[in-house]
Amino acid sequence: MDIVLITTVIASLFIVIGLAEPLAERLRLPYSVILAVIGILIGMGAIFFLRTDLTDALNPVAEAILGLPIRSNVFLYVFLPTLLFQATLGMNLRRMLDDWVPILVLAVVAVVVATLSVGYALFWASALPLAACLLIGSIVSTTDPSAVVSIFRSISAPRRLARIIEGESLLNDAAAIALFGLFMGFVMLGVPDPKLGDAIAQFPVLIVGGALSGWFAARVALWIMGNIGRHELAQLSISVALPYLAYIGSEQLVGASGVVAVVAAGLTLNLVGPGRLQPQAWANLRELWDILAHWAGALIFILAALLIPRLLEEVRLGDFALVGVVILAAIAARVVILFGLLPLLTALRLSPPVERPYRVAILWGGLRGAVTLALALAVTESFRVPDGIQRVVGILATGFTLFTLIAQGTTLRWIIGRLGLDRLSPIDDALSRQVVAVALQTVREDVSRTTENYELSHDIVRSEAKRFGERLDDAVRTAEDNADILDRDRITLGLIALAGHERDTILARMRERTISARMAEQVLSDAERLIEGARSDGRSGYNRAARQSLSYGRAFRLSNLLHTWLSLSAPLARITADRFELLLSQRLVLRDLGTFIDGRIRRIHGRRVAVLLHELLTRRIDAVETALEGLRLQYPGYAEELERRFIRRTALRLEEREYATMREDGLIGAEVYTKLMEDLVARRSAVDDRPQLDIALQRIELLRQFPLFSTLDTPDLKRLSRVLRTRNVDAGDIFLRKDGIAKSVYFIASGAVEIETAGQSWRLGRGDMFGQLAILMKKARKTEVRAIAPTTVLELGEDRFRRLLRRNPALKDTVRESAEKRGIASEDVFAEIDAA
């Protein structure tokens, strides 16, 4: 075929892609629906011109269109990895990890329920073998993630709900394609009635094998990209190769799911990449994949739609009834998930509550598209699948896809309007009017300064000022008419605005490189958690999210157990260093929020709200300072190294800005500027390396600061540091409960605890110890110990404590003093101390 003609057709398709987006916006239809309709029309037009006798002039073009190398392997090996990989890079993975339970449950269960529902419904309504029916069920279980995401953006759905549905849609495709490969194997082997137990047993192998393959491929790619940090284009090239090699390697070498491997590779790169790549390189990488996925998604829709007329050429009257069975069974399966499983997950507190209108929108917005058609095409192309099954699979999958695109896609906005999801809530509507009034006041001041600077004609200025003033008066009057917002709602809206500005500040700091990309991702996740907490529960939700951002997570506790039990210190050192940098980044951002409260929020919501937000902000800053001080006490000197690193990065940013200004002003030429920037990049690379945190060394230095151990020499300190176990608790946690058997003594490394016994309480801080008297008195504890700040203690077992007590006179004196202070000094206690 003429290569020039094929190139012309493909270039023309890109023109169609460029014009389809504004057309979809004008017609208020989903972009995928417009692409599918255009593809169908092009395919029908090509067939018409080839078969008509009206003219032969367009036959070469029609032959080129129908002769395009559109095969299932093109979709599965070229387009699909691109779409899945970009979708994983665009996810806020840290926030999705908070909801991994509902995402995985919905993804896996939704696919299995849809596959079984459609499969058994077809088996009862047709003469097809069960394996072929289940194959069709797996094909139509795939959804279009881009359509789902665009739906939720258009209806301003809650962010957490949108994340769950987005993650479910992505993993839904991976699970469905894994099932497709499983049942496709049964059909090609001629197994008419596969054992469901065997199929389910093989399903986890496909998933786990694919996940491990993708993770390994991503780690290798990250290692290579990290070693070529100065060559950004090379890094981008490796990222382009990653999803394809992960897909092919998993399918051909491991025998697992290639789709799952691509998803795992993308998730790994999303989680680890920001900490390994330069901020600008990571931003460019994501932009590159956005463009590639946009082109791939559009092309896969158009090219798949071109096949629809050919797939429907052999349609029969009875096939329409089977298409209706597929439609009803698929909708019924979705109803079970949305109105049965989702409420159950909500009742179990594993998923946020999803209001009924949103569930209806999700139900009707479950569009199918190119992935469904590509899988159907793979069946029709396989010579190992019987001809009758090929025909039915192609027709049913195509018919169901057309129904979702035409019937559901074209009526989706109408459904959303009828559900009232396209309208602002009363609070948001009132807020928008307040914002317009404040914005116009600011604009009037700026316009006034502009007219004075340019000395414009007084008559023109006067007439325009009058016109603008009338609009401002109307806006203020409208805002005052809607000033019946409750103070509670104003506080909520103020907190949402404050958290939103916090997110914008983080992005600005990230662009300036004063906050590393790795920490920016974490702090951004915390800011979004603040927004969602304020939206759902107001002030209490905001405070809960703020406390959660400072709490020790599961990873910290796990790394602490590894350090304690297996002496693996690297994970604990890395997470502790991350916490240091996170707290410093949070403090840096929080200090900038006061001006925003006094400026914007006070003008919109008033003085009372501004004062309350200042109080909440002050508490957050104090909590961050307290947590940071606890780490400083535990690891002296490390926080200072991080602060020096921040100052150096700030200086480099200012230096880079000065060079750019001189270049723009013509003070230095391109050669000088290039040389200066190369030197600056080298110095920045050295500054970006975070100092190492040596847990073992820091513990020895910490022990030296305890007066009890000041007389021990270095070998004794090293031996003691190895037997001491570290425990970390959050503020408010109960450390030791009453009536427990004393087995250890605890030394406070950082933080503070409150001890309560017999109606009395006192507090101990860094350098103090507790638990020693309960051991010496050989009685059950009658005290309760509670952390009043994030606290780290060093735990020493009873036998080792007694041996240390015998060799350390200073420790004996300290134990005596504590017994006298608590009023339990007696001859028995002193004798026990001396005997030890």
UniProtKB/TrEMBL annotation:
Locations listed in the record: Cell membrane
GO BP, one annotated term: regulation of intracellular pH
This protein's UniProt keywords: Cell membrane, Ion transport, Membrane, Sodium, Sodium transport, Transmembrane, Transmembrane helix, Transport
GO cellular component, one term: plasma membrane
Keyword Transmembrane appears in the UniProt entry: yes
GO molecular function, one term: sodium:proton antiporter activity
Membrane topology field: Multi-pass membrane protein
The name this protein goes by in its record: Cation:proton antiporter
Organism: Marivita cryptomonadis
Taxonomic path: Bacteria, Pseudomonadati, Pseudomonadota, Alphaproteobacteria, Rhodobacterales
